Amino acid sequence: MAANRSCLGDGSSENLDVKLTLKEVKNYMEIKSYTGIGSRDASELAMKMGSSLGRRFARLGFILRSGAARGMDTAFESGCNLAHGRKEIYLPFSGFNQRIPSGNPLQRVLAVGENPLAEEEARNIHPNWAACSRFARQAHTRSVCQVLGEDLKSPSTFVVAWTPTGQDTGGSRTALVLARERDIPVYNLYKLDERLELKEYLESLEEVPPSL
């Protein structure tokens, strides 16, 4: 049973649907999470890649962690939704972008911007916390949960992002710096070499086991 694959190296978003294999069913039982984030002003190509990856990882049984912002967050989540995947959407506050918390165990939406332990992590990472508005602090705080989970003890398996220069900048900086500090792999889709690394990783997950 062959799986359709795409070459992320050239940014293609075609033929990303994959058939579930025995290995993928096992992945569902193991329950892994990844963080899908990035710039609110992402390019159209970047958003197509994000949506395709969101669908592809959902088919492999990964839980998406993201933040309901426009741009890359929306792209990853839309792809996840197309595959009816599991997700954890972390809001800086209830009502952000017209989203409210949800207790659905398969599609969780949580407002975490006032979490004191997550805020402490964000404060330690941000270069000028004192200058941040309340909203900015809430947004950076929720970024911590995007990487470490609601309990701050369940780190994502990896982080996929797109930033305009490929650097740890903008609203995603807190999450990206935190991931690197915790030795969590980061794939920035802006960078060709990291897209190719992610492609190789995906293909390793999609290897088809022998038929029974």
Number of domain units: 1
* CATH fold description: Rossmann fold
Given the helix and strand composition, which structural class is it? alpha/beta
Q: Approximately how much beta-strand content do the residues carry?
A: 5-15%
Largest sheet: 6 strands, parallel
3D shape: globular
Average pLDDT figure: 87
Radius of gyration: 17 Å
Q: State the distance separating the first and last CA atoms.
A: 12 Å
Going across the major beta sheet, what is the strand order?
4-3-2-1-5-6
The helix tally amounts to 7
* Poorly predicted residue ranges: 1-20, 24-29
Task: Give me the count of strands.
Answer: 6
CATH architectural arrangement: 3-Layer(aba) Sandwich
What is the H/E string? HEHEHEEHHEHEH
Using the coordinates above, name the CATH class. Alpha Beta
Helix content: 25-40%
Give a verbal description of the structure.
The chain starts with 21 loop residues before the first helix and ends in a 7-residue tail after the last helix. The longest helix has 16 residues, at 44-59. Helices cover 40% and strands 14% of the residues. The chain has a single domain (22-205), classed as Rossmann fold (3-Layer(aba) Sandwich). The chain has a six-stranded parallel sheet with strand order 4-3-2-1-5-6, sandwiched between helices. Residues 1-20 and 24-29 have low confidence and may be disordered. It has seven helices and six strands, in the order αβαβαββααβαβα. Strand 5, helix 6 (173-181) and strand 6 (186-188) form a beta-alpha-beta unit. By secondary structure, the protein is an alpha/beta fold.
